[in-house]
Amino acid sequence: MSIEENLKNLNLTIPKAPDPVGNYLAYVKSKNIIFVSGQLPIDNNGKLIKGKIGLDLNSQDGEKATKLAILNVLGQLQKATGDLNLIKKCIKITGYYNCTENFEDHPKLLNIASDLIVDVFKQKGKHSRAVVGVNSLPLNAAVELDTIFEI
User: Fold this and answer.
1) Distance between CA atoms of 32 and 24, rounded to whole angstroms?
2) Maximum CA pair distance of the chain?
C-alpha cells in the first residue's frame, strides 16, 4: 500500500510545509538522510497553538499540537522528496514540550507523533526518540518536533 493510500485511509491531509521564520533551512538533505528542522503546531491558516501545557493548555491541547507538528514534518518531507514513498526509515523524533515543571505526560503526548508516523509508514516508521519538557519555546509554541529520516 502506498503512503498516499495510508494517508487517505487514516483520513489525514498533509498541510503545506511552513516556511522557516529565520535564517535556516526547513530541511537539509545529506546523502540519504533528511534532517527536518523543528516543526511547530501551525495549522493551514497560519495559526499557532501557543502556551504552556499544564498552565494555559491541557493534555488534549498538547495532543492536538503534537498532531499538527508531526503533520508539518510530513509536509516538509513531501516538499523535500516530492514522494513520501521514497522514505526508507524514520530514524528519530525528538519532542520538546513547553510545559510546567510538574507536568509528567510528555511521553504520552509524543506517542501521538510516534503512532502517526508508524501508521503512515508502517514498519519503516519505527524510530528512536527523546522527549523533553522545557521552560519556553520559540513563539511560545506548545511543542516543537525535530526529526531525522532516511531516503
Assistant:
1) 20
2) 43
Check whether 1 has a pLDDT greater than 80: no
Q: How many domains does the chain have?
A: 1
pTM: 0.96
For the chain, counts of helices (H) and of strands (E): 3, 5
Q: Residue with C-alpha cell 523524533?
A: 93
**CATH code for the domain of 72:** 3.30.1330.40
- Which pLDDT score, from 0 to 100, does residue 104 have? 95
Q: Tell me what the mean pLDDT of segment 104-122 comes to.
A: 97
Domain that holds residue 122: 3-150
Cβ neighbours of residue 22 closer than 8 Å, sequence gap 6 or more: none
Output the pLDDT for position 19: 86
**Which run of H or of E encompasses 77?**
helix 59-81
87 SS3 class? coil
Q: How far apart are the C-alpha atoms of 147 and 56, rounded to whole Å?
A: 26
Question: What average pLDDT does the structure give for the chain?
Answer: 96
Q: How far apart are CA 10 and CA 24, in angstroms?
A: 32
Q: Point out which residues pair with 144 in neighbouring strands.
A: 96
